[in-house]
Amino acid sequence: MTYEEFLDEIATLLTEMYDLSDEAAIKLVVDAQANDYFVTHDDQEELRSFAQAKVEAAALYQAKQNKNETQRKQQQRQTQKKKPR
User: Fold this and answer.
1) Residue pair 47/40 in contact by the 8 Å Cβ criterion
2) What pTM was computed for the model?
3) H or E element: which one contains 8?
4) What is the pLDDT of residues 5-27, one digit of tens each?
5) Sign of the CA dihedral 24, 26, 66, 72?
6) Segment Disordered: which positions (predicted)?
7) What is the dihedral of CA 44, 61, 23, 50, to 10 degrees?
8) Which of 26, 44, 50, 81 has a 20 to 30 A CA-CA distance from 73?
């Protein structure tokens, strides 16, 4: 599949597997692309398969979940620091 089809497939899988909106799925893919996450996929056609798209969708979703959790914990620590003891 072409590079563009591969990215479309990842966005589609994100909506199907994780019930994300189209906008949220596209944003995840575009942000990853902007951070050069898919450079090897662009260069190596064999990495642009349906199986690999599923792997990448899961990885992007998990990375987003981890980032959200880290941000939540940082906010929680900031709130705890501000509380009088």
Assistant:
1) yes
2) 0.84
3) helix 3-18
4) 999 999 999 999 999 999 999 99
5) negative
6) 62-85
7) 40
8) 26
